[in-house]
Amino acid sequence: MSSNFKSRLTGTVATAMMVALAASAAQAEGIVNVYNWSDYIDESVLKDFEAETGIKVNYDVFDSNEVLETKLLAGTTGYDIVVPTGSFLSRQIQAGVFQKLDKDALPNLKNMWSVVSDRTSIYDPGNAYSINYMWGTTGIGYNVEAAAKRLDGKPVDSWEIIFNPGILAKFQDCGIHMLDAPTELIPAALNHLGLNPDSHDKAEIEKAAELLKTIRPYVQKFHSSEYINALANGDICLAIGWSGDVFQARDRAAEADNGVTVNYIIPKEGALMWFDQMAIPTDAANSKEAHMFLDYIMRPDVIAKASNYVVYANGNKASHEYLDQEVLEDTAVYPDEATMENLYVTTPYPPKIQRVVTRAWTAVKSGQ
């Protein structure tokens, strides 16, 4: 064998070894594809995870459960972790779109809060398919000065402000936004009517829709996120929104020092308690990395960083010692016991009733 051939052979072997090592390193580094709600995590959490594990995070966002559900039910999502709300998660589990969690790969499950886990089990029995990421309430966000002027100093503490057309009309001139979320607004209307907010009765749902139609003329817009900046900038003065979103509006207004003061309340009659759950789709290509990401998120210091950023409560009891005091002690974020007892949860509508809800909501939004 010539020395020249030996040299070529050695070079070929060396190159092959380098390629193999590179492939091995790429496999060791891995990827996890995450699909979460927009503006819903401190980005340093993602960067820290990448630095600690060598796993690259591809992070995409959505702004409604309906958008996520369409992807999940279509089949190939391309994602390893998704974050549906509990009521959507429940029917998605039934549709077989998630894989059961390997709890042996999730030692940080020990940090989860039984108060929250017990409630999420209504959607995910035994919490077999998901972990809680964040939870919160759906209530009223408002411009403090504008409300005081229009209510003659009376407190903003009741759904009456929203569902009494005579009162709501006083806010029309300064702007009213509402969530484009029938599974949250219809239960709120049912609750105001003294009916079960989790009713699946067609006639009762239609009564709630009729109530919503009476206030429709005063609502400027239905959407899922615009009210954050609109409240913060003083473009609107009233919104039905998610607790953490309104807190973000409050903080943005304070940082801008623009003369706008935003507040959030859980109405005294009660409000929806919702849960955003992290789950792994059945077709996830990187299940091992997904479990590593979930376990990382359940570290108390990590989920606390996320909560401090988005100003939402999380389902991790051990995280409390890492939370900013203004977050942990804010009863609008972590309600007191009496308020917690007054919060309600809802369960998924069966297909026949879901069609009723969809038609009713379309009629509400169109004002017909």
TrEMBL record:
Gene3D superfamilies: Periplasmic binding protein-like II. Keywords: Periplasm, Signal, Transport. This is Putrescine-binding periplasmic protein. Its main location: periplasm. Residues 1-28 form the signal peptide. It comes from Pseudovibrio denitrificans. Belongs to the bacterial solute-binding protein PotD/PotF family. InterPro entries: SBP (IPR006059), Sperm_putr-bd (IPR001188).
